[in-house]
C-alpha cells in the first residue's frame, strides 16, 4: 500500500514538473507550504509530531449554520504555518457538541449555546456539568427566528399547532422547548431537519419552523417565500428574562421575510466558545494557550469584512453568568489590560445609576441590559440607513430632493423591548441575584415533550449513564483524548 502511495506521489510530482515546464516557470511543490511539505515527507516521525503538536480542533455546528462560518473564519485568520493550525469540525448541534467536548478524543474546543448546560442539568441528564467546562469568550447572540404563515402573528398563536424545532441533538431543539415551556405554550412538536421542515411548511404540513442561530442565518435567508410567510414576533416576556435577551430582526437580515424598513421583535441566547477544563501544565492546556494568544491578539481582524458580521457583536471582556472562564484566557486579558468596548462606556453615560453596581450578579444583569440597549441601537441604525437609501433612490431632481426626502416611506417602528427592559435599570436598579435565580427555581418545569402526541423524551447521551459525574475526566489528564 505504501509503495502504491509513493508511486502516486511520484506521478503527481512528474505532472507538476510538466506543467511547470509548459508554463516556463520554476515550480517546486515542496516550497508551496508546510502542509504540502509534510505530504511529500509522508511517514516520517517528525512530520507526525509536527502536525499534531500545534493543531487545535474546533467543533462547530451543522452545515449552513453560523457556527460553521465562525470556524472557517478562525481557521482563515489564525492558521500560522507550523506555529498554529485551527482545524474546524462539522458538528451535530449544541447538545451533541457538549457530549463531544466531554468524551470525543481529540476535541479541544467547541461552540455551544449558553442554555444547553442548564437544560441538561434541569432535565437530569448531568450533574454539575459546568464544573467540567470553561469558556474562552462569550460569542454573539443567537436570535430565535420563527417562520410562519402570515395568519400567525406571535409565538402565542402556536398553541396546539404543529411546530418543527429541528433534530433532538441541536441547540434550536433546546432553546425552543425551553422557551415554549416557560411561556406555557403547548404546541405539537415535530423533530425534523430544518431544510425538510421548510419544505413541509410550504406544503401546509407544518404551522411553523423555529430556527435559533446568528442572523442572518443561511437557511432562513435562502428560504423561498412566495408571499405567504413571514417571521412571527417573540415577546420578551418576564419568564424569559433571566436567561435570554431581547433582539430585533430587520429587513436587512431577511428581505425575503420582512418588508423593507420594518422590524420583528424576538429573543436571543448567547453562543459560547467552550473548552474542557484541562489540568494546568497538561499538553492539551498548552495547545489551548497557543489558541488563546493567537485569537485574542488577532481579534480585531475578525470584526472587519469579509468575515461574518456577528463578530462585531463580541466583546472579549463580556461576563457569562454561571460559567468559569478558562484561566489561560483570563490571565491573557489581565496581562494585556483589555478594556470593555467603547459602546459599553456610551451605555453607562446614558445610565449613570449603573455606576453604583458592585456585585457580580448585578454586573451580569447590567451587561444584559447593555446588550439589549446595543441591539436596539444597532437595529435603529440599520433602519435609519434603509430610510436614507430609500430617500436617495426616490430623488428625481435636485430641486425636488428636499420635498421627497422629507417623509419616510414606512411607518415609524414600534417601541423595542430592549428600551422597555432598559427602563427597569434606572427605575429599579439592576436585578439582584435572588430575583434572577428564584424566578427560575419557582417556575414549574413540566416535561415540555410530554405532549398529547405521546412523544417520549429523548436522551441526548444514548448508551451513557443517566448522570455525568465529576470524574468523567480524571485530573491526571485523560490519556488518549
What report would you give on this structure?
It is a single chain. With 481 residues, the protein is α/β, with parallel strands linked by helices. The chain contains 17 helices and ten strands. It has helices spanning 2-22, 34-40, 45-53, 66-78, 94-103, 114-122, 171-183, 194-202, 218-221, 283-297, 299-302, 327-336, 342-350, 360-393, 401-404, 417-428, 433-442, and strands at 55-59, 85-89, 109-113, 133-149, 162-164, 188-190, 208-213, 229-231, 245-250, 263-276. Strands 1, 2, 3, 4, 5, 6, 7, 8, 9 and 10 form a ten-stranded mixed sheet that branches. α4 links the parallel β1 and β2. α13 packs across α14. The longest helix is centred in the last third of the chain and has 34 residues, at 360-393. The protein is globular and about 65 Å long.
Mean pLDDT across all amino acids: 74
Please, what is the oligomeric state? single chain
Shape: globular
Into which percentage range does the β-strand content fall?
5-15%
Topology, please?
Layout lengths: L1 H21 L11 H7 L4 H9 L1 E5 L6 H13 L6 E5 L4 H10 L5 E5 H9 L10 E17 L12 E3 L6 H13 L4 E3 L3 H9 L5 E6 L4 H4 L7 E3 L13 E6 L12 E14 L6 H15 L1 H4 L24 H10 L5 H9 L9 H34 L7 H4 L12 H12 L4 H10 L39
Parallel strand pairs: 1-2, 1-3, 5-6, 5-7
Antiparallel strand pairs: 3-10, 4-7, 4-8, 4-10, 9-10
Helix pairs in contact: 10-12, 13-14, 14-16
